[in-house]
Amino acid sequence: MLKFRVIPCLDVKDGRVVKGVNFVDLRDAGDPVECALAYDAAGADELCFLDITASHEDRGILLDVVRRTAARCFMPLTVGGGVRSVADIRQLLLAGADKVSIMSAAVTNRDFVREASEKFGSQCIVVAIDAKRVSTDDEAPRWEIFTHGGRRPTGLDALAYARDVVDRGAGELLLTSMDRDGTKAGFDLALTRAVADSVPVPVIASGGVGTLDHLVAGIREGHATAVLAASIFHFGEFTIREAKAHMAHAGLPMRLDP
Amino acid sequence: MTVAIIDYGSGNLNSALKAFERAAQELDSAPQIEVTADPDRVRAAERIVLPGVGAFADCMAGLRAVPGLLPALTEAVQDGGKPFLGICVGMQLLATRGLEYRETTGLGWVPGQVAALEPADPHLKIPHMGWNTIDQARPHPLLDGIPTGAKGLHAYFVHSFQLYATDNADVVATADYGGPLTAFVARGNVAGTQFHPEKSQTLGLALIANFLRWAP
After folding, report:
1. Stretch (H or E) spanning A71
2. Residues of B recognised as catalytic
3. ipTM given for this complex
4. Catalytic residue flag (residue A11)
5. pLDDT confidence of B11, banded at 50, 70, 90?
6. For A173, A250, B34, B208, which has the most beta carbons within 10 A of its beta carbon?
């Protein structure tokens, strides 16, 4: 039986993990490779690197991080942040990424998704969607796509956009609620469910995890097939193993390999 | 011993190379593992690995695009009987034909065709992506010592198409996703996994080590 996935996400800037990872004694808590290995050992189902380096010229540093991670970490790795061209994707895949996540470039040029999936296969093209609720409380819920860390509205309806990028070949969606991101109030379950129910591909829920029950809700109520979190794992509030054991206890099929 | 991982422009060979290097450390005599598209190196290798990501037609075209590669592969594997492992689309290419985007002739080493996954439950997501257990239909040296079945280790899958083998005896293991899907095929010296051993941690490294010891 296919299991639900728990995915820790590391923000990487100039080759270093932003804020570090503090859940185990690492020689260097800011080294993405060490953090990746620790999550690998802890039973993470996949890893996600989000590159937030401002300058595209420093791409070599990220590629080196990906290369060193892939050499020691035998589990699926998704890399995103600043992916703008087929050449960017090719470099990341050759360095050892298994999936590449595209965000802004998909918003500005929807055909980029098609081009990328035809070139490399849908299975490695993840489209990252940052959505914010734009309807008022007494209206039917409506969400819009935002870029630039939630600062820039695009006017695009999140559900229509999600369907469209999947039609163009996205193999998976990484859906982040910008209303919930960083709040620890739980996923936006209405958003997650609305998107997951309207596309045939897997949806990763992201943004807002504060408790382990939030992870269960993302899958059970949000209909996501994977849950992504950062801070609850990085700061040692919960281990990946605790998260997966909690989800299994709640009745969700999880991978609990030794 | 040399192991050739075939490079025909199909994606990420770095992680396959590293996983084989890691698994090789478990062996008494460490094999030399190389990534190559050179037909002579393929002929000279003692074991051959064919990875693959993307679409069936693209991958087959990529194989054909390297002059002399397909004849060298056929010579080594079909005539020479060298142990062969196909991974993901590299496994699917073993079929007689693929139906992804357009009908494409495959290697034909494991009779069958590659067509879209059709899980009985229409709510199941496609691609079949993530960790699944595998159920063994029959024993195979590549699965020696690996716990399989519902309580066994997990393998990492990511695919929307699967190999439907003509002869059930070629299917060594299946995975359950709204019904059984082909996870592992083998016929003589030829084996192929739909999942990615290079991404499947314990199960994957054990399977690769078994492949490096395999004497079909």
Report:
1. helix A59-72
2. 88, 196, 198
3. 0.92
4. yes
5. low
6. B208
